[in-house]
From TrEMBL:
Coiled-coil positions: none
Lineage: Eukaryota, Fungi, Dikarya, Ascomycota, Taphrinomycotina
PANTHER family listed in its UniProt record: CALCIUM-TRANSPORTING ATPASE
Cofactor: Mg(2+)
UniProt family annotation: Belongs to the cation transport ATPase (P-type) (TC 3.A.3) family. Type IID subfamily.
Cellular component GO terms, alphabetical: fungal-type vacuole; medial membrane band; plasma membrane of cell tip
EC number(s) per entry: 7.2.2.3
Stated name of the protein: P-type Na(+) transporter
Length: 1037
């Protein structure tokens, strides 16, 4: 790092600028910044570990599926079955390598996607402001900070305006620290880290105000880097070590060591790592492993525990038949692809748990501004009490030179008399006396900037509401840059979401200091004492509120502007915010129009069809919120303003907060719109929804939204206008701040959940069929009374690894079903293993087992000699001819049935010939063929798996010595009959499912079967309407 003569907090701003070889006015050049990053490294902590190849390899080797195969290989080698042991070892190697490569690529993809949501830094480079990823920050960069930012590096402050940071992570201080760029310290002083108020530290959070500073330390050279090891997240169990001075210390220490031991055992077994679904599947793997051991014991018991090589081989066959070896690998690949698809739909997944959870969301609590609406605001109407209205018509939110301005002359005294006020266009924009303070407040009580870019287009930076006010004042040449020539900022009180106001104090060249205030109408009005030089009595207050309601009912967001003078003799620094914002003179109301996004109405309608309730939580006026909610369909169109239901559909934050939990729980339904919503209201809303068994997604962008984002089941942060704190607390980040992207994320979450269900079913069906086949196969004894397996271990592994795995990967890539957003959300507590899936698994698996057994019996006993020979589990000889031919046939039947199921499970209900479920009169062969072949990976996996059967049967040595079967001829006829019968059964089972899910079906038995055998997740229009808008506390009603 650059060497400083003295510690940075002792160094003046000028010396810091000189020693760090930078310019406060223009910042570093891009070339210098890149050179410094190359020399000193990126702004990262070493504890920010990347992807570990060793850990991924270890996970692949130690997962339950692989452990079973390792045991099977060891047992094969132990019984001197070298070929079988070698094949199993090769499959283990293949499984580990494929799984490692895929998971490593997936982890790298996830890592790169997560970096898109990493904290950003606003820096001055080459004389212009840029937003860069914080790890690209260089020593000497000039950085700007605002409320909600995470400080990206250690910074020497050069300018501060009401600037405070939360340094609890570094110093343990619970209260924010007030910073002062111009603070100086004596070189002889010992100044602790927490008292260096002219510095801002990396990873601290800006809680108030804004600042500019010079970056003097990055990465491991920061204060937080010095203690990075203590910041590495560890499991809470390690913080529970008992103190030696505690009572019963030895007993508590033994318990602590046992808990740590269990933690590491679970970690090695994969029971406490990964997402909830991955943990469930790991548990499933170990349950299946236990079942495999039990089945192996059954094999031994069937042979009176006289364990020979033959018995051991059969036990191995039965044990590996129940394990879906590729399940974990296929799941990891599917999740990684899902995360990649999410990013293409403008959603960055920060936590994989959210990917699983999104499909189960029942309620979305969304902000309005910039999410449901465009966030490109226009000051549409301005009401000045002593004059009347200004009406602005324009289509450009940033260009102050376009559009028209009209006036409606209607002073406060005549406001109740005029019925049809005259509208006059201002052909020449002029600033009259009553308009002057409106323009000054709009421009100076404002942090935005507007200007022309190099292409000559108007661009703006800042919060949309402030941009609208700034553009309005710039129409009259009252832009901020122009006014700052004659006005000096003395004090700034940033917008506070609790009091919903912002205030600034400016000193003009001739006048006394003047306070300018803007904010929510009620919050500004409560601080006012006068209006238009007259006392603000209750009558005039009601007139102001009536004007606010008028503007709000037009869908305008209404702000109030106010001001007052301060005597020159008063010390501004000594005044509290309470004093500064008291005894104000009411100046104006500004109605700002934020048009809904074009896609919002369709997205809300899609949510309703999917059984998802949409709640709008906004800081706007109730009338504004209600107008926008009706426009986009959050409030149904048939609900009129005088409808009694409107009383619970639209509430204010204070009204909702005033209700007890008991009162909220007894409400007919939770409100659809909360206006004037505070951060704590959002948290209360989430708790209320959770008590109604809802699964909630919550949006947020500010620092104060982080509690609600953490409390929500899925926290959604805004990528464009969201604070770093909100992003850090969230599960997913929207890169375009668009409500429709939330709906896209839910649709993608449902698609992923659907596909996981498909490939889990597909993998487990073959296992069930193989277990049935081999358990019943214990009855087939050779002349030595040893069981002869209908399928060899290598055949079983081939079916599970080659035949099933790659089609299952293809199923993980399936497109969303056409009706995916016309079903109710799935239950995340139940997860993948629903009653429907279990019954499907048993039904299809049972019939595969039956068809396989039928094939074995027909070939062995109907057309064969019924002679099972001897040692046919070990090697081929003439006495095993029928057995080996029957095995080839059974192997073919199982393989082809599995491949048929790869197509059948593309849709659990619809026919193989009509997977989209279109009316049969509209059906065409072309549509059917396109649907079957649209997933290229799946179709090629099926074709190659089908083709792989024939080399295994007909290539010499491989067939008899490895697979324990031999070439067949006429037996293909038996195979064809068995496969056709299985296909007919699959179609018949789907017909039963379709019949049960018909909405007009009645009867208790039908309903019971429907709930058991199918998901039954669609509702009629009336049922859906009741769920969305008329539901009682019991959501199942």
């Amino acid at each position: 790092m650059l060497n400083l003569k003295n510690p940075i907090h002792f160094t003046s701003i000028e010396d810091a600028e000189l020693q760090l070889q930078t310019s406060i006015q223009s910042g570093l050049s891009s070339q210098t910044a890149h050179e410094r990053i190359s020399e000193y490294g990126e702004n990262r902590l070493q504890s920010d570990k990347g992807v570990s190849a060793w850990k991924i390899l270890l996970r692949q080797v130690l997962n339950a599926m692989c452990v079973v195969l390792i045991l099977a290989a060891a047992l094969s080698f132990g019984t001197t079955d070298w070929i079988e042991g070698g094949v199993i070892s090769a499959i283990i190697f293949l499984n580990v390598v494929v799984g490692f490569v895929q998971e490593y690529k997936a982890e790298k993809t996830m890592d790169s996607l997560r970096s898109l949501a990493s904290p950003m830094a606003n820096v001055l480079r080459d004389g212009s402001m840029e937003t860069i990823e914080s790890h690209k920050l260089a020593v000497g960069d000039i950085a700007t900070l605002k409320t909600g930012d995470v400080v990206p590096a250690d910074i020497r402050l050069v300018e501060t305006i009401n600037f405070e940071t939360d340094e609890a992570l570094l110093t343990g201080e619970s209260l924010p620290v007030v910073k002062n760029a111009h603070a100086s310290f004596n070189m002889n002083e010992d100044v602790p880290v927490g008292d260096r108020i002219n510095l801002a530290y990396s990873s601290s959070v800006v809680t108030k105000g804004r600042a500019t500073g010079i970056c003097y330390a990055t990465g491991m050279n920061t204060e937080i880097g010095g203690i990075a090891t203590s910041l590495r997240q560890s499991h809470p169990i390690f913080s529970q070590k008992p103190d030696p001075n505690e009572e019963n210390y030895k007993k508590k220490l033994r318990k602590y060591r046992f808990r740590v031991f269990l933690y590491y055992v679970k970690r090695i077994l994969g029971l406490n790592v990964g997402t909830p679904l991955q943990r469930k599947l790991t548990v499933l793997a170990y349950v299946l492993f236990i079942i495999a051991v039990v089945l192996a014991i059954v094999v031994m018991a069937a042979h009176t525990f006289h364990v020979t090589n033959e018995v051991s081989i059969y036990a191995i066959s039965l044990g590996i038949s129940i394990i879906p070896e590729s399940l974990i690998a296929v799941l990891s690949i599917t999740m990684a692809l899902g995360q990649k698809n999410m990013s293409a739909r403008r959603v960055i997944v920060r936590k994989l748990e959210a990917l699983e959870a999104l499909g189960g969301v029942t309620d979305i609590c969304s902000d309005k501004t910039g999410t449901i609406t465009q966030g490109k605001m226009i000051a549409r109407r301005v009401w000045i009490p002593s004059y009347g209205y200004l009406v602005i018509e324009t289509s450009s939110p940033f260009d102050p030179t376009t559009g028209t301005v009209s006036t409606i002359h209607q002073p406060l005294e005549t406001i109740t008399d005029a019925e049809n006020p005259k509208v006059e266009e201002m052909h020449e924009l002029r600033v009259f006396d009553d308009l002057d303070p409106v323009l000054k407040i709009s421009s100076l009580c404002n942090l935005s900037s507007i200007n022309k870019n190099s292409e000559g287009d108007w661009v703006a930076k800042g919060e949309p509401t402030e941009i609208a006010l700034h553009v309005f004042s710039s129409r009259f040449n009252y832009g901020k840059e122009e006014l700052l020539k004659n006005h000096k900022l003395l004090r700034e009180y940033p917008f506070d979401s609790e009091i919903k106001r912002m205030a600034v104090v400016y000193q003009g060249k001739e006048n006394n200091p003047e306070v300018y205030v803007k904010g929510a109408v009620e919050r500004v009005l409560e601080r006012c004492e006068s209006i238009a030089t007259q006392p603000l009595d209750s009558e005039k207050r009601q007139i102001v509120l009536a004007q606010m309601d008028t503007l709000a009912s037009q869908g305008l967001r209404v702000l109030a502007l106010a001001r007052k003078y301060i005597q020159n003799s008063v010390e501004i620094e000594t005044l509290s915010r309470e004093d500064v914002e008291s005894n104000l003179d009411f100046v104006s109301l500004v109605g700002i129009y934020d048009p809904p996004r074009v896609e919002s109405k369709q997205a809300v309608n899609l949510c309703h069809r999917a059984g998802i309730r949409v709640h709008m939580l906004t800081g706007d006026h109730p009338e504004t919120a209600k107008a926008i909610a009706k426009e986009v369909g959050i409030i149904p169109s048939y609900i009129k303003d005088n409808d009694p239901n409107m009383s619970w559909m639209v509430m204010t934050g204070p009204q909702f907060d005033a209700l007890s939990d008991h009162e909220i729980d007894n409400m007919k339904a939770l409100c659809l719109v909360i206006a004037r919503c505070a951060p704590q209201t959002k948290v209360k809303m989430i708790h209320s929804l959770h008590r109604r068994k809802a699964f909630v997604a919550m949006t947020g962008d500010g620092v104060n939204d982080s509690p609600s984002l953490k409390q929500a089941d899925v926290g959604i942060a805004m990528g464009l206008n969201g604070s770093d704190v909100a992003k850090d607390a969230s599960d997913i980040v929207l890169t375009d701040d668009n409500f429709s992207s939330i709906v896209n994320a839910i649709e993608e979450g449902r698609r992923i959940f659907d596909n996981i269900t498909k490939f889990v079913l597909h993998l487990l069906i073959s296992n069930v069929g193989e277990v049935i086949l081999l358990v019943v196969g214990l009855a087939f004894r050779d002349i030595h009374h040893l069981s002869v397996f209908p399928m060899s271990p290598v055949e079983i592994l081939w079916c599970n690894m080659i035949t099933s795995s790659f089609p299952s990967m293809g199923l993980g890539m399936e497109k969303a079903q056409p009706d995916i957003m016309e079903r109710l959300p799935h239950d995340n507590k139940v997860g993948v293993f629903t009653k429907s899936l279990i019954f499907d698994m048993i039904a299809y698996g049972f019939f595969i087992g039956v068809m396989s057994l039928m094939t074995w019996v027909v070939i062995m006993y109907a057309f064969g000699t019924g002679n099972l020979g001897y040692d046919c589990n070990s090697y081929y000889h003439d006495g095993c001819k029928d057995v080996f031919r029957a095995r080839s046939s059974v192997f073919s039947v199982v393989t082809f049935c599995i491949l048929i199921m790869a197509c059948e499970v593309k849709n659990f209900d619809n026919s193989f010939f009509n997977l989209n479920g279109i009316p049969w009169k509209e059906w065409s062969f072309g549509d059917c063929f396109r649907k079957l072949t649209e997933n290229r990976f799946l179709i090629w996996a099926i074709i190659l798996a089908f083709a792989s059967v024939f080399p295994t049967i007909y290539i010499p040595v491989i067939n008899t010595d490895v697979f324990k079967h031999r070439p067949i001829g006429w037996e293909w006829g038996v195979v064809a009959v068995a496969v056709i019968l299985f296909f007919i059964f699959a179609e018949f089972w789907k017909l039963i499912r379709r019949t049960l899910t018909k909405p007009h079906g009645k009867g208790r038995i039908r309903r019971t079967l429907s709930r058991t055998l199918t998901s039954e997740t669609k509702l009629s229009e009336s049922q859906l309407e009741k769920r969305l808008f008329k539901q009682s506390r019991n959501l199942s009603s």
